[in-house]
Write a structure and sequence with these properties.
zinc ion binding; 10 helices; Znf_TRAF; binds zinc ion; elongated; 381 residues; coiled coil; two-stranded antiparallel ribbon; disordered N terminus; mainly alpha; zinc
């Protein structure tokens, strides 16, 4: 692997687009540090230079298969240099958030970009120096050793793949390295191209979509009679001719459609008449049902009144029943008293009977005594 041998003897071409990206990145890093430290670009730059291009550092190409070791290191250093903690923690607490730092950085960008010490060409020069220092794999710069003022050197300058070229397409201001020419041409919006749909026009790439979707005569369009059945495939440019040429066919289609619609209209009319009849029938049925309902309502009213009268009668009967029941109760009481009296009389009768019986027995005994005395007396001398 070749070693970087110093800018003076090397081809100074590098990848133009990468150089531009790196310039932008450097602008952001410087603006960020200006915002953090409240310094000007001229005060920040020497420190940044020292961080990114340390004295005596030599970056060697990687011996492993891992590519871009030097560029990865540059990326790390840029990341560190643009962060709050990049140059020590002392001032890190000035910002409460990353968003706040971004806001202040973007406010400083224009100011830094306008500073003479860090204008566009100064940034590009620093970017080139960084690429020459870190790109040891020569992915983004040439670094070819050139003898000054020789024919070989002049030839190299004309053929170097990193030589800057500007886009040849009219209106395009893009700059890139020669090796990126094909890639740029394949997507350059100013590239003049024949119409994608094959009409005679040539358009720049960025206008192609609007042309093919708009005025291009080769744009496929539907015949206005498609809705009624014309299946012709025509382009915008052919449409006028098709409309003239296919007039008889379109008329026939329209006639057919008209006749179909007439049939449908007739069927609709018949359907409507049937519906009307149905509505009249339903209305009559509804009216009959309504009059039935009214009659039933009247019957219900009469029944309610009869019910009321019945209820009144029932109340009267209930009252009568209650008084009868009271009378019955009194009668019952009287019956019970009579039964009691009857029982008492029974008992008295029984006692009387016993008394009579005992009196009778006594009288019978006295009678017997008397008869004995009588006999004694008769027998006595
Ligand atoms: Zn070169
Ligand atoms: Zn271009
Ligand atoms: Zn076209
Ligand atoms: Zn048609």
């Amino acid at each position: 692997m070749a070693l970087y041998a110093g800018p003076a003897l090397s081809c100074s071409y590098c990848d133009v687009e990468e150089q531009q990206k790196l310039s932008e990145r450097l602008l952001q890093v410087v603006a960020s540090q200006c915002a953090i430290r409240k310094l000007s670009a001229s005060e920040v730059l020497p420190r940044l230079r020292k961080e990114l291009l340390p004295d005596g550092e030599l970056i060697r190409a990687s011996t492993s298969s891992a590519p871009s070791r030097g560029l990865a290191l540059l990326e790390q250093r840029l990341e560190k240099a643009g962060s709050r903690k990049g140059w020590g923690d002392a001032l890190a607490l000035q910002f409460t958030s990353k968003d706040e730092l971004l806001r202040r950085t973007s406010a400083r960008v224009r100011e830094v970009a306008a500073a003479r010490e860090f204008n566009e060409s100064a940034r590009a020069a620093l970017a080139l120096e960084l690429l020459q220092h870190y790109d040891c794999e020569r992915e983004l710069h040439c670094g070819e050793r050139l003898e000054p003022s020789t024919e070989a050197t002049a030839r190299h300058k004309v053929h170097c793949v990193f030589r800057p070229v500007s886009c040849a397409n009219d209106g395009c201001t893009a700059m890139y390295s020669a090796r990126g020419e094909a890639a740029h041409d394949a997507q350059c919006g100013f590239k003049l191209l024949p119409c994608e749909l094959g009409c005679s026009e040539h358009l720049i790439r960025s206008a192609m979509a609007a042309h093919t979707a708009g005025p291009c005569p080769n744009r496929p369009v539907d015949c206005p009679f498609k809705a009624v059945g014309c299946g012709a495939h025509v382009t915008q440019g052919e449409l006028a001719h098709h409309l003239v040429e296919a007039t008889p066919a379109h008329l026939m289609i329209m006639l057919e459609v008209f006749s179909q619609q007439q049939k449908q209209l007739n069927a609709c009319g018949a359907h409507m008449t049937a519906q009307e009849t149905l509505i009249i029938q339903q209305r009559a049925a509804l009216e009959a049902a309504y009059s039935d309902f009214t009659a039933m309502e009247q019957k219900l009213q009469a029944a309610e009144e009869a019910n009321k009268a019945l209820r009144k009668d029932l109340d009267g009967a209930l009252k009568t029943l209650s008084s009868v029941s009271k009378q019955q109760e009194a009668q019952g009481k009287r019956s019970a008293a009579l039964a009691e009296d009857l029982a008492k009389l029974g008992t008295q009768q029984k006692t009387l009977k016993q008394h009579v019986h005992s009196e009778l027995s006594k009288t019978t005994a006295e009678c017997a005594d008397l008869s004995i005395r009588v006999r004694q007396l008769e027998s006595a001398p």
